[in-house]
Every structure is written in C-alpha cells, then in structure tokens.
Design a protein that fits this description.
globular; alpha/beta; 10 helices; Rossmann fold
Length: 348
C-alpha cells in the first residue's frame, strides 16, 4: 500500500459519508441514550480517566497520556492504560486481537502504543481491538495488574466504560477551524458534547498562538527536549543540526501543521518536507521513493517525530543519511496537575 492508495481509501470514505451521513444520526442517538440513562456505562474497581478529543486527531492525546501517567506514578498511584492500537496491521473489525502489550512491534500493536510503551516501560498497556473490549481491558488491568487508575486513551466517544474523570483535549488550531462534524468538518461529535467533560485542556498553545477568542481555563504548552532521538535509540544534542545544510522534514501524524510549527519554534528551517497520512505504514518501496527524493534534492539529514521514528528505524540501514526525531518533554504544568489531583482525590 503506497501513499496514493492510502489516500484514495480515505477519500472514498469521505465521499461515502458525505452522500450517506447516517453516522451523524447514530452518534446523536447514542449520546441521547447515555445522557438520559437508557444505557448505562459499566463501572470497574479501578478509577477510570478518559483522555479524548472532539476532532479526528492531532490534539496530542498520546503525549498527554504519557505526561499524565508519569504524574500519577509520581503520586504513588498504580497506573494502567487501555488503547485501541490505531495503525496496526491486525486492527481488523472482525478478527482483531486484544492483548497486554509486551514486546510487540508497531505492526501488531500500533505506532502510538509503542510510543507509550517506550516512554512508560513499567506501565501495563492493554490493546483493545473493539469498543466493547475496553470494558474487559479496564477490568483486566484492575484485577490482574492491581491498577488503582486506568487511563482510557482516545475514549471520549466510547461511553460504554464509566469514567471518574473525563478530560478533553482541544488543539489551539482546532478552535479556529470548522465546527462541523465529519465529513463536513473535522469533529467526531457536536461541540455540545463538551458538557460531559470534567476538564477541557487547550493544547499546543505555544505552537498556534493566534487569538482564537477561547477562554479555556487550562492551556498546555508542550516543551521540547534539547536532544534528538536516533534510530539506534541513542540521543545527540539538537545543536548537531547546525552542520547540515539541507534538512528534510518528514511526518505521518494527525496534524502535520503542528510539526511544522514545532520546527519553527525550535528555529529549525527544513528546505524540503514530506507529509504522509496519519499512522502511515512505511514499506520498503516508500523508503526507495524517499531515497530518490533525497538524491534529487541533495538532502543531508531527516527530521521526524518520535512517532514516525518508530516505523522508520527498521529501515535505518536503507536510509543513507542521518535521521533524528524531535522529542517532547512529557510534563504537565502545575495548574493542570493541581486540578487533576484534586478531582482524583474526590473519587477515591
């Protein structure tokens, strides 16, 4: 599957849903049934924190989940995470697999799952292939791993699991875009869904600092490390980039504009850029095309995100120039930490 066919599938879905937007009706019905207690979410022994968003991607849920987990662990809570495993090859609707993450590859577990595992080595992560398995995942981590708190990554719309704290992330640039549901806009559900949230946190405020008129109480500015992560898992000072004259920016994330803004913030100016769809499964033929692009444009270094490096590192011998990933300092600010801790203590 190359980028052309990957994009073709996305456009086919957009066209189909534009002609038959039945999903909008179904989402409204589901929310109505839960809002008025016709359907009730299932509770577990562990306390559950949902981290989600309203848009289709790119709000920083995975970095936030990492930062939140680190914070809770520092407060002596036993933390587990339930994920869907977006981007994995076996994420089939009928025959997908659910499992506890160990040493599975990104093809088996998803690129974001591997990113979580790389940064939270001792935190149990349950990969759920369908929504109903999230209930099983929460119970599994609670009973088998004795987790006090289970974080549901990307779960604001998955209402079958009862949550003690609902956190919704909104990227600053989302506030400036269309407020319509997909495929007419980029929202998964109407903005009115925010009334279910216990906390709304605006992310990437330092990347998209335009005046959007929002009055969010909590704003999270991601800080970036002063080193690059390399394909061999070693690091080097970000200042090494000064010796390269023609840097290529490469990313396959939900919001590629945020990576561009990150480089601007770090005062890095790539001469060329390549953008792929989110979770794009790089294959050897893609690497051959990247090498051709490198030769044609005399590129001497590649910069990508930590999520992209997970999939590119297996081709480190094929790519003939240095590859480095910009990494986030996974920390929450004191205001957000204080509010989360206050709400958690209310339910324990």
């Amino acid at each position: 599957m190359n980028s052309f066919y990957y994009g073709l599938k996305v456009w086919a879905l957009v066209i189909f849903l534009s002609l038959f937007p039945i999903h909008i009706f179904l989402i409204r019905i589901k929310n109505f049934l839960y809002d008025y207690n016709f359907w009730k979410p299932k509770k577990s022994r562990a306390k559950v924190i949902s981290v989600g968003n309203l848009s289709l991607g790119g709000s920083g849920k995975t970095p936030f989940t990492i930062a939140l987990s680190k914070f809770l662990i520092s407060k002596n809570y036993s933390v587990g995470i339930v994920v869907t495993g977006h981007g994995r090859n076996n994420n089939n609707f009928f025959f997908g697999q659910s499992f506890l993450m160990e040493n599975q590859s990104w093809e088996e577990a998803g690129d974001e799952t591997v990113l979580l595992k790389n940064n939270l080595n001792d935190v149990p992560i349950y990969v759920s292939w369908r929504k109903k398995n999230k209930v099983h995942g929460v119970n599994y981590l609670s009973e088998k791993n004795n987790c006090d708190i289970v974080i549901l990554d990307d779960a604001f719309q998955h209402r079958k699991v009862y949550r003690d704290l609902d956190i919704v992330l909104i990227s600053s640039d989302d506030l400036m875009g269309s407020q319509k549901m997909f495929p007419y806009g980029l929202l998964r559900e109407p903005v009115l869904g925010l009334k279910r949230a216990n906390m709304v946190i605006e992310t990437k405020g330092n990347l998209f600092n335009e005046d959007n008129g929002a009055q969010n109480q909590f704003i999270l500015h991601w800080e970036f490390n002063d080193y690059l992560l390399m394909p061999n898992d070693e690091t080097c000072a970000i200042s090494v980039l000064e010796k390269y004259n023609n840097i290529l920016s490469l990313c396959a994330i939900g919001n590629p504009e945020s990576f561009k803004k990150t480089l601007e913030l770090l005062k890095i100016t790539p001469k060329k850029s390549l953008v792929y769809p989110d979770h794009y499964p790089f294959k050897k033929r893609d690497i051959h095309k990247i090498n051709q692009f490198i030769n044609k444009n005399s590129v001497d270094a590649i910069l990508c995100t930590e999520k992209d490096l997970i999939k590119l590192k297996q081709y480190k011998k094929m790519i003939k120039i240095p590859v480095g990933a910009i990494t986030i300092n996974y920390c929450l600010n004191s205001e957000i930490e204080k509010e989360i801790l206050s709400k958690i203590r209310e339910v324990f």
